[in-house]
Amino acid sequence: MSSAAPPPPAPPASDDRTPGGFGPGGSGDPWAAGGLALGGILMVVYGLFAVLQGIAAIAGDEVYTSFGQYSFAFDLTAWGWIHLIVGVLVVAAGCGLFTGAAWARVVSAVVVGLALIANFLWLPYQPFWSIIMIVTGLFVLWSVFNYRSSRPV
Question: Which has more pLDDT, 47 or 37?
Answer without folding.
Answer: 47
